[in-house]
Amino acid sequence: MLLHPGRYLTILLLNPNLGFTQTELARRVGASLNSVLDEVRRLEQAGLLFTRTLGRARLVRAGSRPLVEALVEVMVRAFGPPV
User: Which domains, and CATH codes, for the chain?
Assistant: First the structure.
């Protein structure tokens, strides 16, 4: 099941200072872990996401490029600040 990357980006962009495991992202959007792995890899290559390894977990968060900062601003204006 390939999901639109907007579902992942919404979670990550509205929480730019938080890191999520790929398993947690899969659970939050109701996707398979393989789908999340593929989307995260693609979005990381595009520079929209940043990942780092912490122990056995791979944490994903919004990147820090100007494009990402603009997307965060759009998401906050559209949906409000994260709760």
Answer: 5-76 (1.10.10.10)
